[in-house]
Structure formats: structure tokens, C-alpha cells
Amino acid sequence: MILTNKKAVCVMSGGMDSTLSAYMMKHDGYEIIALHFNYSQRTQSKELACFNSICNELNVTNKYVLDLDFFAQIGASALTDKNIEVPTGGIEHGIPVTYVPFRNGIFLSMAAAIAEKEGAEAICIGVVEEDSSGYPDCRETYIKSMQESINLGTKDETKIEIKMPLVHLSKSQIVQKSLELNVALGLTWSCYKNEDEACGVCDSCRLRLNGFKLTGVKDPISYK
């Protein structure tokens, strides 16, 4: 085994995509610095529990959990404003009401601060462009522009690359890659609505279930 001191700040929600991304970074020899955000999302407690379980599975010792309760004040998203219903009628065209305004931009900015402090050379985020729900902050062009801005706004010796290993994968390819790397998929959570059993009908659940269906494998988490 090759010893390395490469470090990567991995933004980890507790979901399948960011979990696979962290596994991939570890497989590539990076020491994982795990970063999780509580942003007043509906499934905040469940996501945090999943994050901690996944960190234990990956033997991550350096982790950050940041509370961003201002997202609830901003609202404008079904994930952070309980007065807005989470859609359950299927994938909608355009930007859905589950989009949280500039969430990934804020997450990446905070990840950059941690990466600079920790001397990490990479930030990893599990954005998916082709098979996502149409969120503008999941586009490869946007993430690359954030990388440029982060390096312009940090110390000259700070050189950070934002890794997005899943950006061009479909959900079925994500499931397949997760199986190849023995990702603990049963510890992950994707549902936008529930914390006990996944609803199976929100956009995120539908995408996840379809990925498993196309792969021919049963999803290990429980659904209503």
C-alpha cells in the first residue's frame, strides 16, 4: 500500500452520490476530511445520522458538521420551507421547488475555507449533471468556475481542485460503481420527505429507485 498525505475535503450529505464520491476519493489514496451541513432541511436528523455512520464505515476521524440555519430564513425551497410541499407526482421540467438557492455555492465556499486551513489539495462534491433534478448548481461549468474563484480568493500557495467524479454518470451507473466499491448503500439516505421510511415518490426517491431497477439490484433501504 502506497502511503500518501493527499487530503480531500469531501462534502457528504449522507446520500448515495456524495457517499460514493467519498469512497472513490479514498480509493484514489486521499485522506478524507468529511464535511456535513445541517441547513434546516426536512430530513436533517436522518442525514446527520447517515453521515456519522458512513464516516465510521470509512474510518474517517477528521470531520466537520456545520449548522447553517439561515437557509430556513431564506426559504424558497420545499426542503427548507415546510409551507412548500415536496412534489411527489414525478420528475418535473425546469428547476423544481426542491432547489435550495445557491446551496452548492455556499457549501463549496465553506469547504474551501476548511481545505485551506487543513492543507487539502482537493474538494470533492457528488454533483450529477445528466441525471439530476435540474439544479443549476450541479452543472460542471458552474463547479469549474467556483474552482477558479476559490483559487483566486485564497493564499497564493493554496491550489485546490474541485473533484466531481459523478458529474456525467447516470443513477444506474452510480449504483453499479457503488457495488463495485462495496459502498455501504444501506447507510445512505435520499428521501426529501421522510426520516423513518423513504417515501418512494419524491424526485430523489424516484431517481434512486430507477437507478437500482435499471441495475437489477434491490435498494437496501426501506420504503413506505
Plain-language structure description:
With 224 residues, the chain is an alpha/beta fold. It has one domain: HUPs (Rossmann fold, 3-Layer(aba) Sandwich), CATH 3.40.50.620. It is 37% helix and 11% strand. It is built from 7 helices and 5 strands, in the order βαβαβααβαβαα. β2, α2 and β3 form a beta-alpha-beta unit. α1 packs across α6 and α6 crosses α7. The N and C termini lie far apart (43 Å). The model has no long low-confidence stretch (mean pLDDT 95).
What are the main properties of this structure?
about 220 residues; alpha/beta; Rossmann fold; five-stranded parallel sheet; 7 helices; 5 strands; about 35% helix; globular
How is this fold's topology laid out?
Layout: E1 7-11, H1 16-27, E2 31-38, H2 44-57, E3 62-67, H3 70-74, H4 103-118, E4 122-124, H5 140-152, E5 161-163, H6 171-180, H7 203-215
Helix pairs in contact: 1-6, 6-7
